[in-house]
Every structure is written in C-alpha cells, then in structure tokens.
Amino acid sequence: MKKYLLDLKVADNVRLHPNYCLLKLTSEETLPEMIPGQFVEVRVDGSSSTFLRRPISVNYVDKDRNELWLLVQLIGDGTRRMAEYRQGDTMNVVLPLGNGFTIPDSDQEEKNLLLVGGGVGTAPMLFLGAVLKSKGFHPIFLLGGRTQNDVLQLDDFAKFGDVCITTEDGSLGEKGFVTNHSILNTKLFDTIYTCGPKPMMVAVAKYAAGKDISCEVSLENTMACGFGACLCCVENTVEGHVCVCTEGPVFNTRKLKWQI
Amino acid sequence: MKKYLLDLKVADNVRLHPNYCLLKLTSEETLPEMIPGQFVEVRVDGSSSTFLRRPISVNYVDKDRNELWLLVQLIGDGTRRMAEYRQGDTMNVVLPLGNGFTIPDSDQEEKNLLLVGGGVGTAPMLFLGAVLKSKGFHPIFLLGGRTQNDVLQLDDFAKFGDVCITTEDGSLGEKGFVTNHSILNTKLFDTIYTCGPKPMMVAVAKYAAGKDISCEVSLENTMACGFGACLCCVENTVEGHVCVCTEGPVFNTRKLKWQI
Amino acid sequence: MANLNVNIGNLQLKNPVMTASGTFGYGIEFADFVDLTQIGGIFVKGTTIEHREGNPYPRMAETPAGMLNAVGLQNKGADYFANNIYPNIKDIDTHMIVNVSGSTVETYVECAEKIAALDKIPAIELNISCPNVKHGGMAFGVTCAGAAEVVRAVRKVYPKTLIVKLSPNVTDVTEIARAVEAEGADAVSLINTLLGMAIDAEKRKPILSTVTGGLSGPCVKPIALRMVWQTYNAVKIPIIGLGGISNWKDAVEFMLAGSSAIQIGTYNFVDPAISVKTVEGINDYLDKHGFKSVTEIIGALEV
Amino acid sequence: MANLNVNIGNLQLKNPVMTASGTFGYGIEFADFVDLTQIGGIFVKGTTIEHREGNPYPRMAETPAGMLNAVGLQNKGADYFANNIYPNIKDIDTHMIVNVSGSTVETYVECAEKIAALDKIPAIELNISCPNVKHGGMAFGVTCAGAAEVVRAVRKVYPKTLIVKLSPNVTDVTEIARAVEAEGADAVSLINTLLGMAIDAEKRKPILSTVTGGLSGPCVKPIALRMVWQTYNAVKIPIIGLGGISNWKDAVEFMLAGSSAIQIGTYNFVDPAISVKTVEGINDYLDKHGFKSVTEIIGALEV
Ligand SMILES: Cc1cc2nc3c(=O)[nH]c(=O)nc-3n(C[C@H](O)[C@H](O)[C@H](O)COP(=O)(O)OP(=O)(O)OC[C@H]3O[C@@H](n4cnc5c(N)ncnc54)[C@H](O)[C@@H]3O)c2cc1C
Ligand SMILES: Cc1cc2nc3c(=O)[nH]c(=O)nc-3n(C[C@H](O)[C@H](O)[C@H](O)COP(=O)(O)OP(=O)(O)OC[C@H]3O[C@@H](n4cnc5c(N)ncnc54)[C@H](O)[C@@H]3O)c2cc1C
Ligand SMILES: Cc1cc2nc3c(=O)[nH]c(=O)nc-3n(C[C@H](O)[C@H](O)[C@H](O)COP(=O)(O)O)c2cc1C
Ligand SMILES: Cc1cc2nc3c(=O)[nH]c(=O)nc-3n(C[C@H](O)[C@H](O)[C@H](O)COP(=O)(O)O)c2cc1C
Ligand code: FES
Ligand code: FES
C-alpha cells in the first residue's frame, strides 16, 4: 500500500481516562485507505525528550467524518504530550504502515471470531470489529482491564458485536484475566485475534494452540522508523528475524518463536 | 541579591508585533525585588531544540499587579516558543540576575539622563525610566527601530519621560539611526544608558566618549547559566575577562575594551 | 538555481546530499515519500558476503536527541543482493552505493569483488567502523594498521570508487584517515556511530540485547563536525560528512567544515522527506549568499 | 530512607551525588537554589598554579541536547584560591574537591602541592582531559604514558584522595584507566567533555573563538555510560560517573553501570536545584526497590 507523510488536523482530543486519550484526526483531503491492524507513526512536536516518531495503531476510521482515531495510553513523555494536542493543532503522521489482520472472505459460511484486547491493546480491535461486521460477521469482543474504568470505548464496541469483559477487581464483567473468561469454555472459535500486554497475548496464544484455533497477534516491538528502513523492530520467527513494522505488526502465532 | 528559582504564571502574553511578544508573569507570592538592567533566565518547555535557559531583561515590574514583564523578540526556536505560552501556563525562571544600571541619588540636583534603546534593546529602558521617574528624574528616551511598527510600548514610555524616536525609513520620528537624532546636538546629557545591537551601542558609546559623558551599556553575551557558574559569558574589560551575567550585564563603557 | 554537482573521486553526483547506510533501506522504502532521483546518492544497507541474522531484539534505544542501534549488519548476503535486490534498484536514476562489511579481510575482499561485478553500482563504502558486530567491523577501523590492511586488500580487487567509512571511536581520526588515503582510498566518509549504552533503571538491565550499541542522530553532530574539519585539514581525498544532519543548515555546516558531500542517516526516520528538503535548502542558501556552485562552500569555513 | 553513604577511597560521602567541575562555580553560586550541605561533594572550578584568563569570547554554543564550551580553565590561580576563596568555602559541610590542571607535569605537581596544604580539601581531581587548552590538559589524558606520568608525579606529593578525570576522546578508555590505577590513583572520574565543534552557517565561521570545544549535556550520556561500564569491568578502584546526567534516573543508570558516585555538570545550568532533587530521587528509587543501601546498586546491572 502506498504510504503517506501527512499533516493531519486534530478534530478532537478526548481524555477518556487519566491515562488514555482518544485523538481524532482529520484532513481536507480524503484520508488514505487503511486496514485493521495497521498503524501510523506520529511525530510528536513540543516534547524535548521525544526524538523518534511514535507508533500508534489505527483505532478506528470514520469514513463519514473522514476521521482517523488513535487511542493513546499515556506512558512516557511522547504520549503525554500527545494528550495535550488541542483541536485545530497539526499532527504529522506517516501512514498507513504494516499489514493488517486476516479478514475471512465474507461469502464463506459464518465464522466464530474472537477479538481479544487487553489494556491499550483494545485499540486495533475496534476497527477490526467494525470491518468484520461490515463484511457480515458477528465478532465477539473479549476486553480486559484492571478496573471498570480501564475498559474503554464500550459503546463503540457494542455497535459491532457482542462484548465480553473481564476486570482484575471484578468491578465490571467477570473477575480475572481475559483468559479466565467463561466464553472461552462455552464457545468454540474459528479464529482469535489479539493485542495487548505480552503475557496476555502469550496466554491467549496458548489457549488457541491448545484448541488448534488459528490465532493472530499484533506485536508492539520498539521501532525507529516504522517502514522497513532501520531493521530495529525484528521479531524472531520461523523465517528468522523479520521486521514487525513491515511483515507485521500482525503475525499468525504459528510463525512466532515465542515460548508458549 | 538573593536569587530565586520560581514557577511563575503567565498572566498575559501579547503579540505586539509579528516578531515581538510581551509576556506578563505573575505569582501568588509577591515577586522578588528587581532593579532596572537585571535579567531573568527562562526555562523554555516544549521546544526540542532549546536546551539551555534563555536570558531576558526585566522590561518592567508592575508592583500593583505583582507582574514581571518580559519583552521578547522572536529570533529562534526558544523565543518563538515563548510567544506560544498562553495565559495560565507556568514558566520557570531564575531571577533576579546581574547588576543594574547606576541610579543617581535622587536628592542631587536634577540631571539630564538619556536612555537609548534600539530594537529589543528598548526592553530594559522602560523599567529604568520608570524607576528614574519615581526618583524624581525626567528621563529622555531615544528609541530606534526600522519602521514605525518596530518601536514598541510607546504609551508606556510616555508615562515616564519624553520620547524621541528615529526610524530607518522615517515612518515615525526622525529618519535615520538613533545616533543621528537632533536631540544629541541640542541637549547636553550627564549620563547615557543604552542597550541594543552592538553597532548601535558602539556608536552611542563613541558619542558619549566624545562629549565626556558617563555611559552605561547593557551587554547580551551568550550565556549558559546566567549566575556566574560557567564562565561562558565573559567580556574583555580593563580588569581582564569578567562575567557579564554577574559583573554586568550593565557596564560603564570606561571598563570595556571595545574598539570605539 | 546554483550548480549542485560535486565529485567524489571519479563519481559525479548531481548534488551533495546522500542517504546513510542502514537508515534508508534500499531506497525503495522511501519512494513514497521522496523522489529518489533527486537525491545525490543512496548508500544501501550494510552488506556482507554471507547471510546474517543480526543481533537479537531489542536493537534500539532512544536517547537525548538521538538513538542507539545494535542491528548488527542483518542482511541476506551479497549473492542475494546481486540476484534479488540489485535488479530492482539498478535503474533508479541516482548512484546506488553498497556499504560493504566483513568479519575478516578475506570476507571484505570477497564481498567487494561480488559488488564490483555489478555494473550499476559505481562505488562501495567500506564499513570498517560498525560497532555492533563481534568480529571485524570496528576492530579494523580503530587502528591504522587494521584500517590500512583492509583497504589495501580491497583496493586490489575493487577498481571503482572506493569510499572508506571511518569510526569516531578513536583518539585521532586523522591518523586513520591518512592511513586509508595512503592505501588508495578514493574518499573517506565519517562518522559511523559512536559506541554508547542505555540502561533500564527499573529493570536494572541493559536496553539493548548487545549491551552496547551505536549512537547516532543530532546528539553526535558536534563531534562529527569536528572530525570532518580535522580530517579536511589532514587528507587530500574528498570527505563525505555525516553524523546528526537533520536539516539543510547542518548540511551546509558539514560542507563548510570540508565535506564534498554529506549523508543523512537517522533523521530519515524522523522526517522521511528530509533528504530532498535538504537539497532544496542548500540550493536556497547558495542563492541567498550568491554562490554559483556548491563546490564554493566546501571547506570554506573562515577560521 | 535508605543509607546513601558511599566511599571513594578514604573519602566518605554522605551521598553519591556531587557536582562537576566548571559547572558549579565554588558552590556558593548555587547556595540560593540548594542546600549545599545536602550534596555529597562539590568539585570546584578547574584550578591551575598560575592565573589564567581563559579563551576569548565566544566560549559557548548550544547543541542538540547539550552544549560546547571553550572556557579554557579561566581561574585566578592556586594562591588566589587558597587565600581568597578557600576561606569562604572551607566550612561548608560537604566535601569541597579541587579540580587541578596544569600545562606541564611540574605545574600539575606544584598545584597539587598547594592544594594539599589546605586542610579542608580532602581530595583533588586531576584534570588530564580538558580539551580547551593548548598545552597540557587532554594531551596527557589521551595516552597511557602521558596519563601515567602525571599521576605518578602528583601521587608523590599528594597524600590525600587522588581522583583522576579521564578523557572520552580516546580509542580505549579502559587502557588509560588501568594506567592511572597502576600509578596509585584512588579513583577515576569520567567523562570529561568530548571534543566537538559548531559552525555558524550564515557567517561561515566557527561559533567558538577556539574553533573546537568540549561537548557536554544529555547528548553525551550514552557514551559516558558505556565508558563507565567498560571501566568498571577493567579496574578495581572506584569510579565517579558523569556525563549528561539530568535526573535521578540517569544517576541510577550510572551507578548500575559501576559508578560508586556521580557528578552532575551541565544540567545545573538548566535546573540549578537538580543536585538535591537527584539525591531525593535516588533515595525514592532505593526505597521503592527495597534496597537498604545505595552501595547495593553499584555495578548491579544484570547483563
Ligand atoms: C505497532 C505498534 C502499535 C502501537 N499502538 C499503540 C496504540 O494504539 N496506543 C498506544 O497507546 N500505544 C501503542 N503502541 C505503543 C506506543 O508506541 C508506546 O507506548 C509509545 O511509543 C511510548 O512513547 P512515550 O514517549 O510515551 O514513552 P517512552 O518515554 O518512549 O517510554 C516510556 C516507557 O515505556 C517503554 N516503552 C516505550 N515503547 C514501548 C513499547 N512499544 N513496548 C514496550 N514498552 C515500551 C519504554 O521503554 C519506557 O520505559 C504501539 C506500538 C507499536 C509498535
Ligand atoms: C542579559 C541578556 C538580556 C537579554 N534580554 C533580552 C530581552 O529582553 N528580550 C529579548 O528578546 N532578548 C533578550 N536577550 C537575547 C535573548 O537571550 C536571545 O535572543 C535568545 O536567547 C535567543 O533564543 P532563541 O532560542 O530564540 O534563538 P537561538 O536559536 O538560540 O538563536 C538564534 C540565532 O540568534 C543568535 N543568538 C542567540 N542568542 C544571542 C545573543 N544573546 N546575542 C546575539 N545573538 C544571539 C544565535 O547565534 C542564532 O544565530 C538577552 C540576552 C542577554 C544575554
Ligand atoms: C539503524 C541504523 C543502522 C545502521 N546501519 C549501518 C550499516 O549497516 N553500515 C554502516 O556503515 N553504517 C550504519 N549505520 C550508521 C549510519 O550510516 C551513520 O553513519 C550514523 O547513523 C551517523 O549518521 P546519522 O547521525 O545521520 O544517523 C546505521 C545507523 C543506524 C541508525
Ligand atoms: C562550562 C563548563 C566548564 C567546565 N570546566 C571544567 C573544568 O574546569 N575542569 C574539568 O575537569 N571539567 C570541566 N568541565 C567538564 C565537566 O566537569 C563534565 O566533565 C562534563 O561537562 C560532562 O558532564 P555533564 O554532561 O554533566 O556536563 C566543564 C564543563 C562545562 C560545561
Ligand atoms: S521500525 Fe524500522 S524496520 Fe521496523
Ligand atoms: S553565563 Fe555562566 S557565568 Fe555568566
């Protein structure tokens, strides 16, 4: 896919949570085509300690409003500065980057698709769910967070499928981790897509492997460029070191050399 | 004088001109005592290319409003970023720094005092004029700029003394440089204070030397610390290398080794 | 519009702005962002005779105004390059220059020979300064004898423009520059990365899998500029300056210090269009200052 | 509240945070910003036997995440220090350590002897790494023989804690560290500034009067950290780490890499209160991670 270097305008920046903001970016031109699982590289202006761009997943693309949504967790100076961008500010981004999740052909028989997101790893699941729904699927979201306040964008998720939730303190949904959720025992899935903290993804991958379910994970290796030029973001796979930014960030777990 | 490291609040930031802004800083506490000719060292947040603090003269101190004014010329990233500070933002400053202009004893006979400022060098002259006036003097300001738009804060200056103006294009006051102004031929001054581009200060110093008038200049040597720790800001004087930040920025021209 | 042509030995560049090895892929990664034909030359990824997997992840750490990398010359080998990559890049209308590395003198020579056979590759850049490999690399670049040995051997088999890339991790870079000049190098490029390190205080572990890595980016610019200037005063062959260049002003500074051409590395990650912007910026600078040709500013620093 | 005491040879520090020579004046310049007694030690300005005017202005250039300086050891000489400055600082309740420089071995020795006579100065830091003077300074620090010669001579006349400050402008810093250890240095401090350069593109002139100057600040941190770690693996005497430290996290990283204590230099200009903040930050880190004493993290990097 052709990549673009664009100055986008901040249409809105909502602080969903002390540690999360939702950036809505727009442009005078129609935004380039993007697919779920892809990411963008954001240039953060006005942060003296942020030198490189920051990779952020496509959270959602609102075609009607010509908006690209980024769900950002505030963890360091770069993301904290992103939360300060105000409506009308310009944000320079490179996009779209990487490969997306595998979308089943919509004319096939109905599939049971599970989308598992933990923490900020829920970000790409929203757009994935939206696209799956538009292709006629009925995705099931399994979202995990520490408390009820940490599971974000629930109204949006509900538009595109059923939503299952776990929280560590039990304040919303079932208590525990995503891999403890009862749905995993009651339903058999054809494909699982997941993104989140590594221990969570490993647990999900393990579950999938145990049941011989095809499983795609989205990795967040640290990156310098985001488009295949630096070779910094490599993951060890059955094919050797491959760049997460160009060969991923989505990988079928079969390809990875994780200890699962 | 005791030095302070303070977080001040931006009370106002007025863009007087495309290349100048007037920052008004305030604090919950009473601002420390400052004297004309002193400067502050500003920490510029949110500019990735501005590492060191920026020295800026005290433009004015409004005791009633507990405000410190800084007149800033936008020349590089640091000063451009300063122009972006908005009301309510915090600006970290070290102050007050350096020595001030010599203020004659107010119970002496009336003196003819000329305050010559060129470009952003007008900044310290406002506060100096205000203090001189409060001591019973009637300072004469001689302010120079390229065009009428480049001579700033005229209303403020007018409060404290007579204002003479030169502009290079003649759009305001007399045409030419400050040293061409007719007042220099018609009036004999006891003391001249000056701040501005080096060629201007040299010309003023030459005039003063020719007439045996005591002349104080405010230097703007590049600084790393601003309070005597780095020895980077030295000026060659009759006493050898001295720090402009602690022994100056105001010097009697007798002390300097300029070629005048 | 000033004349932007410069020469590096026999190599004629349409302009002095090139991109640094390991930071610009094979050029095609940037084709969506810049018109590659507007760049003076492209130094492609570090290439070795054998396929190399490089170092384990993590390979990158951000640092103040820069980054550390420990890629370790991951590449599919000279044969793969010749058969699978060269065909796709050989017709790009700019100079594609291969950055050649090895772990022994013999592997340098073998790799250089392989690349010499490729018609459309007019030059190689000998990397005797990679800090991220156990054998070879920087080990050759930090002594005069080591540098001279590799260059002597490669010079015998490589008839085209031979550029030698110097390591900044030395007491006296001019010594090494003179040594490679004496062995017939056509030009030197400097600097490669400075050996650095990053630590995760919370985990009490190094961030890079290799503990140390190569520092690049704006943070190294003052050091690189100094080394270029020192080298300019020490050798007669042309210098390609690099290290931290992030805009046309930096590029002009490197040329004033004595670079005949420059490379942009890390900053391509920050602004993928920086190379072409730099060409434009240099041109504007020349026009503004009344220079007819960019060659007028090479080494034009007034000291 | 963890135990923050560390030792450098016979010198007991109340905490490992000190301030670097040339960046903290004689301490008193910072007395309005920090409680000097809360700092582990203060390295005062570079002192020579003779009065020195230093280099001409301009002496400073800002660089990405750092600065270049070319002060050139301006100071009023050891006698002036002893008579006019020492009396004002000798009763500050922290260690005041004098940074000693010279242009010949003899002047180093003379200066060290003068300072040795001052009761309340428990240590000197031998500056064999100043890049900003024509004679002496770095010239001694970049070869083992030069470094050894100065240290040997000074060791004979200086009985108290002798710290030797190493130059980063070398191929192998561990070689120099071993050489000065062998001559009886009690500790090494590293790094001094890296030789760099800045150019004004518009004026086509160097920014510094001396053309080149010493680079410091956060930009050099990755290099300094690497050198500390290499040196920690090469010598037995304690290491005082510095170079770009700008917060407690940096300080912890330097200690993990093997520093027994650290110095903060350039960042004192940016935040004049950083030294004491760093003490507090280290303490919080130790508490958070369950360390009883700061000595537990010295060299505790898990590689
Ligand atoms: C393909 C991809 C997609 C991503 N999508 C999103 C997203 O949609 N929303 C979102 O909030 N974040 C996302 N991330 C992570 C995001 O890029 C990092 O959180 C961000 O770069 C941190 O920048 P910072 O300046 O705030 O923190 P830094 O100051 O850079 O880092 C703070 C701390 O976090 C650690 N850290 C930084 N980046 C990572 C990382 N990628 N993995 C693990 N630890 C890290 C650092 O080591 C450091 O300790 C994604 C990352 C990748 C590679
Ligand atoms: C004691 C003192 C008082 C000052 N008072 C004021 C004031 O009241 N208002 C005001 O606007 N400015 C004042 N200045 C100047 C001001 O400090 C600089 O303009 C500012 O530091 C520039 O920062 P920057 O980041 O915008 O530009 P930079 O990016 O640092 O510099 C841009 C260009 O300007 C040059 N430059 C930077 N600083 C200076 C300098 N001090 N002298 C000459 N050239 C310089 C640089 O070399 C560079 O070419 C004062 C300086 C001093 C030393
Ligand atoms: C990710 C990365 C990979 C690199 N790979 C190579 C390489 O393969 N061969 C080489 O000679 N230099 C390599 N370098 C060094 C650069 O070519 C360049 O010398 C250095 O980064 C300094 O320039 P810069 O500051 O503009 O990046 C690499 C640098 C980076 C950042
Ligand atoms: C303005 C300035 C003056 C310095 N003067 C001296 C000196 O006199 N003696 C010395 O050994 N080091 C001197 N240094 C080097 C510092 O002590 C320190 O080694 C170096 O700056 C690296 O640390 P930093 O990055 O924390 O500043 C000076 C540094 C600066 C910035
Ligand atoms: S981030 Fe540069 S290659 Fe993947
Ligand atoms: S600016 Fe540091 S001593 Fe004057």
From TrEMBL, chains A, B:
Pathway: Pyrimidine metabolism; UMP biosynthesis via de novo pathway; orotate from (S)-dihydroorotate (NAD(+) route): step 1/1. FAD binds at residues 54-57, 71-73, 78-79. GO terms for molecular function: 2 iron, 2 sulfur cluster binding; electron transfer activity; flavin adenine dinucleotide binding; metal ion binding; oxidoreductase activity. GO terms for biological process: 'de novo' UMP biosynthetic process. The keyword NADP does not apply. [2Fe-2S] cluster binds at residues 225, 230, 233, 245. It comes from the Bacteria. PROSITE patterns: FAD_FR. Its cofactor is [2Fe-2S] cluster; FAD. Pfam families: DHODB_Fe-S_bind. InterPro entries: Cyt_c3_hydrogenase_gsu, Dihydroorotate_DH_ele_sf, Dihydroorotate_DH_Fe-S-bd, Dihydroorotate_DHASE_ETsu, FAD-bd_FR_type, FNR_nucleotide-bd, PyrK_electron_transfer, Riboflavin_synthase-like_b-brl. Residues 3-103 form the FAD-binding FR-type domain. Binds 1 [2Fe-2S] cluster per subunit. Keywords: 2Fe-2S, Electron transport, FAD, Flavoprotein, Iron, Iron-sulfur, Metal-binding, Pyrimidine biosynthesis, Transport. Responsible for channeling the electrons from the oxidation of dihydroorotate from the FMN redox center in the PyrD type B subunit to the ultimate electron acceptor NAD(+). Belongs to the PyrK family. Heterotetramer of 2 PyrK and 2 PyrD type B subunits. HAMAP family: DHODB_Fe_S_bind. This is Dihydroorotate dehydrogenase B (NAD(+)), electron transfer subunit. It comes from Parabacteroides chartae.
TrEMBL record, chains C, D:
Pfam families: DHO_dh. Residues 4-286 form the Dihydroorotate dehydrogenase catalytic domain. GO terms for biological process: 'de novo' pyrimidine nucleobase biosynthetic process; 'de novo' UMP biosynthetic process. Binds 1 FMN per subunit. Its main location: cytoplasm. It is found in: Cytoplasm. It is an enzyme of class 1 (oxidoreductase). The keyword Nuclease does not apply. HAMAP family: DHO_dh_type1. Catalyzes the conversion of dihydroorotate to orotate. This is Dihydroorotate dehydrogenase.
